[in-house]
Amino acid sequence: MCLTIPGRIKKIDGNFAILEGSFGLRKVNTMALGKVKIGDWLLATTGLAVKKINKDEAQELIKLLKGHNYVNNDKIDKKLLSILENARKRSLNRDEIIFLLNLRRREDVEALFLEADVIRKSYLKDFICIHGIIEFSNYCENNCSYCGLRFENKKLKRYRMSLKEIIGVIDNAVNKIGYKMLVLQSGVDKGWNDTKLIELIKLIKQKYRVFIFVSIGERSLKCYKEMKKAGADGILLRFETSNKELYQRLHFSKTLKGNFDKRLKLISDLKKNGYYISSGSIIGLPGQTIKDLANDVLMMKKMNVGMVSMGPFVPSENTLLGKEKEAEAILSLKMIAICRLLMKEARIPVTSALETIGGEEIRKKGLSCGANSLMFNLTPRKYRKDYKIYNNKFYGRNKKLERAALFQNEDSWRMIEQEFRKKI
Ligand code: SAH
Questions:
Q1: Which atom of ligand 1 is nearest to the CA of 309?
Q2: What single string gives the DSSP state of each residue in 88-149?
Q3: What pLDDT score was predicted for residue 72?
Q4: Span from the CA of 241 to the centroid of ligand 1 (angstroms)
Q5: Which pLDDT belongs to residue 335?
Q6: Cβ burial 34-48 (10 Å sphere, 16+ → b, else e)
Q7: From CA 165, how far away is CA 348, in angstroms rounded?
Q8: Angle at Cα 308 formed by Cα 172 and Cα 136, nearest 5°?
Q9: Nearest residue CA, atom 6 of ligand 1?
Q10: 127 vs 134: CA distance, rounded Å
């Protein structure tokens, strides 16, 4: 699942080749490819050539992965430079994060992005992971005021995939495309009761070598413990906002009394029970302040999340916040960059919500300002339009990136396994 980088063969020495690429020169083992010659373009990890590609494909990938690499230090705010310096040595405090979130001048914002990019590269090299998400039910008994799945949204056509349908999607994703990490997401749907969920996880883990994240909202700790026993690896459960008062307000209606402390306690219990944690917030919620966002970053850091999960607020029709303003993309990019400064080795995906407001272009931008992973949507086409958390959801599965990232290789499995061991 780790992204390979294109390079061109400069020299061949037995089963090894010297490749030239964005990484400079790199010696890679070419045994898996059979005969290769000088001038060939290869996709390679740090030590291993994985596949031959043609020149056009290589150029396209290089363009896709290229960051910006120009910052003129004389033009950069001096306080910013000292904060970036601090971030290399220690964690940043709230005031420093607020300063970064408030940056306005283009040169300053670019300097922040570049620093995050440098940190990503020095800690995580050129590896980028692609996760697949399967949205298996849009029934929800919750009523969150921002979410299109809220149960009071009577206009939404509801669907619930069957076990057989889910396994069909997973079979294709794992065995045909090579996904190693999948997220199973739904509303809080008791139609998928505890017993069925546990059976599903058990079956997946028996049949496939794949990491499974569950993103099914608040269920009992007992259910989560059983899912863990059945083989679930991680959870994706956002705290949504670190501002308790705002949380309670957004999760309060005639039918819902959201409980911030309960949600946080669940995340913490799941961590204690060995789950790899992916959590975070919605960026740009109506009523949210810059200080709240700084606290969100600190909360993720404190939780020691393995994967940061956050995205911009996008209004969703037929919800209480349907007429509110969409978040600004630049704020989400700054949050990605800041998370990278504080959580140097975390997985930070460019999420679909960000792609929804920024299009395919923003994917490249996100990957060059600290993000190191992507979420591709694997929900069957016939259901996608009904998983309407927010308006105009983006579905930019990129097959070229999939081909580059999703190869079967023991080294990349080992890397993920190590990361999971470290984080739980
Ligand atoms: N039911 C699950 C997750 C499904 S929704 C749970 O409770 O955790 C997945 C995520 O979509 C939510 O956690 C929320 O952060 C995000 N989301 C919902 N509505 C949104 C909106 N209008 N804009 C941006 N993100 C939204």
A1: 15
A2: HHS---HHHHHHHHT--SHHHHHHHHHHHHHHHHHHHTT--EEEEEEEEE---S---TT-TT
A3: 61
A4: 11
A5: 98
A6: eebeeebbbbbbeeb
A7: 29
A8: 35
A9: 217
A10: 23
How many residues comprise the chain? 424
Structure tokens at 140: 């929800």
Total-model pTM:
0.86
Residue 353 neighbours by CB under 8 Å, 6+ apart: 311, 312, 313, 314, 390
The pLDDT of residue 156: 97
pLDDT (tens digit, 9 = 90+) per residue, 267-315? Answer: 999 999 999 999 999 999 999 999 999 999 999 999 999 999 999 999 9
Q: Provide the pairing of β-strand 41-44 with 49-53.
A: antiparallel
Rounded Cα–Cα distance for residues 210 and 178 (Å): 9
Report pLDDT digits (tens) over 13-63. Answer: 999 999 998 777 888 999 888 899 999 999 887 788 888 889 988 887 776
Q: How many CB atoms lie within 10 A of CB 15?
A: 13
Q: Residues enclosing ligand 1, CB less than 6 A?
A: 146-147, 185, 187-188, 215-217, 237-238, 240, 282, 311, 313-314, 316, 353, 389-390
Specify the 3-state DSSP secondary structure of 161: coil
Cα 252 to chain centroid, rounded: 28
Place 66 in a pLDDT band, splitting at 50, 70 and 90: low
What's the CA-to-centroid distance between 389 and ligand 1, angstroms?
Answer: 6
Instruction: Give the integer Cα–Cα distance in Å for 38 and 64.
Output: 24
CB 44 within 8 A of CB 50: yes
